[in-house]
Amino acid sequence: MLKRALMIGLGVFLLALPASAMNLQDLIAKNLDARGGKDKILAVNTAIVHGTMRMPNGIEAPFTWKWKRPNKLRMDFTIQGMTGTQAYDGKTGWMVMPFTGNTEPEKLPEEATERLEEQADFDGPFLNTEEKGYKLELVDEKPVTVEGTDAYKVKVTNKFGDVTYQYIDTEYFLTFKEDGKRTVHGQDIEFEISLGDYKKVDGLLFPFSTQSKMKGAEQGQSITFEKVELGKKIDDAEFTMPEPKPTPVPEGEKQK
To answer: Is the dihedral of CA 196, 112, 114, 216 positive or negative?
Structure first.
């Protein structure tokens, strides 16, 4: 009885202990292992995701997201029977937005292209960090409590100077929250993103549920993955901006 009581007491004591201090290198290694391992991540050359976006106003938009290594990205989404496209071919960002009355492809402004370039990084900032221009900093070696979860806080600065904080839980070593500040049309916007419902696909973990909103806002945009396919063949042409269709010449002018 004494032995059992001591064991129970020791168990309670261990549960009460805070998570141990961590250095950045070990934390990154644990995160990559939790996601499926560095080698498996780097072995993926293409990904196709099917899902649904839900807007704050209640509108739902089915989407297909395609990615191809090294940095090609395309997303097609349908709203009220019309399909829009945003894509990045590794250099140029472009879009087709029929909702605005324009059915022709057009280049994205520099700011929006930078966002797509970052989103096209399938591996994330913890792989080939310096090569991609990221700077990482572990804010504190000891965990902080975020929304009731103990987490390590990592400061991520991308090559454009944007700063994001990733929160990695101390149990599974997966990112469950991000927040930061971005400059949009000359204004600083604070945002927060929640990631969850991690599921395994071909040995890799993906967050099947994502919610993003401006800091302090009651509502935001949610994204739900329904299917993730890895290794499917995708033609490079799908990421290339199409040539605009020639303007039809009126019949009267043709005769002249």
So the answer is: negative
| Other C-beta atoms lying within 10 Å of the C-beta of residue 159 | 12
- Contact call for residues 193 and 212 (beta carbons, < 8 A): yes
Predicted TM-score (pTM) of the model is: 0.84
Ramachandran sector of residue 87 (left: φ over 0; alpha: ψ -120 to 50; beta: rest): beta
Short-list 233, 205, 200, 240, CA closest to 68: 233
3-class state of residue 148 by DSSP: coil
Distance CA 99, CA 104 (A): 11
Domains belonging to the chain, first-starting first, are: 24-236 (2.50.20.10)
Helix (H, G, I), strand (E, B) or coil at 111: helix
pLDDT digits (tens, 9 = 90+) for 37-95: 999 999 999 999 999 999 888 899 999 999 999 999 999 999 989 999 999 999 999 99
E-state strands within 89-186? 93-96, 106-107, 135-138, 144-146, 149-157, 163-169, 175-184
Q: Which two tokens stand for residue 247?
A: 């303007």
CA dist 138 and 154 (Å) reads 5
